[in-house]
Write a structure and sequence with these properties.
Length: about 220
């Protein structure tokens, strides 16, 4: 997943502070980093709600926070995507080409929702949708008009009386409708502005850190 690093010049602050300030410094650093990390988590959830088509709770719960600890040798907070969600969210963050065998694709090709077909709440292909289509007698698999996939059979007129023995005439009253198409690869644009969500959460970092440090020093003096 993407790495966006926010840095506090800890050593410079440590050199400039009194003994009380030095004791307060780790708590202030951990506190402001955790504040930013949870703001970033909320920003990312908000962007998913905006940028995705009716996202499911599983996607909305993608991002987690590892909190910074004042007692750690390295004081850092981490915002990360859980492994299963990260597999497909990486396409929305970085863009790129999805091919057969990639997360969200089949072993031989990539299923893509069609206008007349069903979509999942996340805007993708519902689970076992291809299997259900393959079992539907009103659906057939073919390559038509240069598009490979599952098609709904066209509406037809009722069979007329045979003009000769064994032959009945029917006429298509509509064209086949594509329900699910298959591609060798699909190109995904960047849709989730991950880095911007982090940067917005970190806005005013220096001023926020100064306020938190001053507050920690006041508490240490009590």
């Amino acid at each position: 997943m993407a790495d966006t690093v926010l840095d506090i010049d800890y050593e410079a602050w440590e050199r400039s502070l009194s003994e009380i300030g030095k004791r307060a410094l780790p708590r202030a650093a951990a506190g402001v980093l955790n504040e930013i990390a949870f703001d970033a988590q909320r920003n990312l959830k908000s962007r998913i709600e905006t940028d995705f088509d009716n996202p499911v709770p599983f996607t909305l719960r993608a991002f987690r926070v590892n909190k910074a600890k004042p007692s750690s040798d390295v004081i850092e907070a981490e915002v990360y995507a859980q492994p299963r969600q990260a597999e497909y969210l990486r396409y929305t963050i970085f863009g790129g080409v999805r091919t057969a065998g990639d997360p969200g694709a089949g072993p031989y090709d990539v299923p893509v929702p069609a206008a007349a077909g069903r979509k999942s709440r996340a805007g993708g292909v519902p689970r076992r949708y291809a299997q259900r289509l393959s079992e539907d007698p009103n659906v057939f698999f073919a390559e038509l008009y240069g598009l490979k996939g599952y098609w709904r059979r066209p509406r037809r007129t009722r069979a007329k009386r045979p003009r000769r023995r064994g032959v009945r005439t029917v006429v298509n009253r509509s064209a086949p409708k594509l329900l699910l198409r298959f591609e060798d690869e699909t190109v995904h644009p960047r849709t989730l502005q991950y880095a911007r969500a982090i940067e917005e959460a970190a806005d005013g970092l220096d001023a926020r850190f100064r306020r938190r440090l001053a507050n920690e020093i006041r508490k240490a003096r009590r």
